[in-house]
């Protein structure tokens, strides 16, 4: 017989945690238990005998077919535990040790899955922030994150960035001059793809929401900078960093698989939010991802990501070549060292290049001429004018790059004329 009963609060004698039926699913694995618990469908009703995928090996060659069948298929098609599919969680935990030097310790930190990293970032914001709380946000910032903070009516405190990431002087100035008696910001949100080491080492003053989808798509000439997740281990002050990884950019965007790595106590609370919001990340996609990653191992996974990074580096180089041909004298930029975007400053007024605003040139004139890019203002946490714009080079052929940038050249020239 099982010695421990179900948690106290489920039968009304405690209130430490709000339980759902789904939160009790792990108890079904207790030896000796006969479960009358959940309304899980009987696997005999599932219309699948097996599922197969034909992956590409990390070196680009064909890989043997991966087949999901038997007990693994039953697990893939069934409800699962809210934190995620355990074999995948274990694999990712090992990846964090392999990539960031974080030793396994479930009492200190662990991993939970999300339907893409955006899913768990949203739930993190809902867990950390109360309505009206202050949060530090790098500027410019990933625009897709702003509606989350806006929905909470957060006070968005902008931290300046440069080509290497957050400016430590800007962050230090904000914190040293914070009004006495005003609650400090709850967290710092940053996408730290190519932030340099000395900047990272100076910002351990707040909980860090480290949104790092391009970590494995780094292609700079220097060694990849260490992550915040790695640095906090080195400082010995663990528990501040919430690391978000995404498999969208390196395996498949349509699978919607991401994860959070962070303090166990925090993730325990986050998982309660997930139970109420979505119950779990689709088990099938988790199993498919695990089958692929497990067949590779960590070294082959890195080989695959290096190959993907090289693809984007080559596309960056092609895009820069087209930029030089069409926009020399009309724009300035710093070559990106990770990811699939290039930021550039439009020079509408050569006498005052930093005072012009890219909004009209990009949103209106360029679109009419047949090219679509994003004006920099939508990436500013609190809006405002900026001469910067952002272009993606991930999907374009070399010919399309030249067509797009020749049209953009015409748009900038027309915008210049309108200012005279």
Automatic annotation (TrEMBL):
This is Aminotransferase class I/classII large domain-containing protein. Belongs to the class-I pyridoxal-phosphate-dependent aminotransferase family. Gene3D superfamilies: Aspartate Aminotransferase, domain 1, Type I PLP-dependent aspartate aminotransferase-like (Major domain). One of its GO terms (molecular function) is transaminase activity. Pfam families: Aminotran_1_2. GO terms for biological process: alpha-amino acid metabolic process. Residues 90-408 form the Aminotransferase class I/classII large domain. Keywords: Aminotransferase, Pyridoxal phosphate, Transferase. It comes from Panaeolus cyanescens. InterPro entries: Aminotransferase_I/II_large, Class-I_PLP-dep_aminotransf, PyrdxlP-dep_Trfase, PyrdxlP-dep_Trfase_major, PyrdxlP-dep_Trfase_small. The keyword Transferase applies. Its cofactor is pyridoxal 5'-phosphate.
């Amino acid at each position: 017989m099982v010695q421990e009963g179900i948690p106290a609060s489920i039968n009304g004698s405690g209130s430490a945690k709000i339980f759902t039926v789904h939160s009790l699913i792990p108890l079904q694995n207790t030896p000796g238990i006969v479960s009358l618990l959940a309304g899980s469908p009987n696997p005999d009703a599932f219309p699948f005998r097996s599922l197969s995928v034909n992956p590409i090996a990390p070196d680009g060659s064909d890989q043997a077919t991966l087949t999901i069948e038997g007990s693994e298929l039953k697990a893939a098609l069934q409800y699962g535990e809210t934190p995620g599919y355990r074999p995948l969680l274990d694999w990712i935990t090992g990846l964090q040790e392999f990539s960031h030097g974080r030793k396994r310790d479930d009492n200190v930190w662990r991993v939970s899955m999300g339907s893409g990293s955006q899913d768990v970032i949203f739930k993190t914001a809902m867990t950390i922030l109360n309505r009206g709380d202050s949060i530090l946000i790098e500027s410019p910032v990933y625009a897709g994150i702003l509606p989350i903070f806006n929905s909470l009516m957060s006070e968005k405190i902008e931290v300046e960035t440069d080509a290497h990431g957050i400016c430590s002087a800007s962050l230090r100035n904000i914190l040293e001059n914070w009004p006495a008696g005003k609650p400090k910001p709850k967290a710092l949100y940053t996408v730290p793809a190519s932030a340099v080491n000395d900047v990272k080492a100076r910002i351990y003053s707040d909980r860090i929401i480290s949104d790092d989808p391009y970590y494995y798509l780094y292609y700079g000439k220097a060694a990849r900078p260490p992550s915040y997740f790695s640095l906090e281990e080195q400082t010995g002050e663990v528990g501040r960093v919430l690391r978000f990884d995404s498999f969208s950019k390196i395996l498949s965007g349509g699978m919607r698989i991401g994860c959070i790595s962070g303090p166990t106590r925090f993730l325990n609370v986050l998982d309660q939010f997930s139970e109420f919001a979505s119950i779990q990340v689709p088990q099938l996609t988790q199993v498919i991802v695990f089958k692929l990653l497990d067949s590779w191992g960590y070294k082959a996974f890195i080989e695959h990501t290096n190959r993907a990074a090289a693809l984007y580096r080559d596309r960056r180089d092609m895009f820069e070549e087209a930029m030089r041909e069409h926009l020399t004298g009309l724009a300035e930029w710093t070559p990106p060292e990770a990811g699939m975007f290039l930021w550039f400053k439009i020079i509408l007024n050569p006498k005052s290049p930093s005072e012009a605003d890219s909004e009209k040139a990009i949103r209106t004139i360029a679109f009419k001429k047949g090219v679509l890019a994003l004006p920099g203002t939508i990436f500013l946490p609190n809006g405002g004018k900026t001469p910067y714009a952002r272009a993606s080079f991930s999907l374009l052929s070399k010919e399309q790059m030249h067509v797009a940038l020749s049209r953009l050249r015409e748009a900038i020239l027309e915008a210049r004329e309108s200012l005279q």
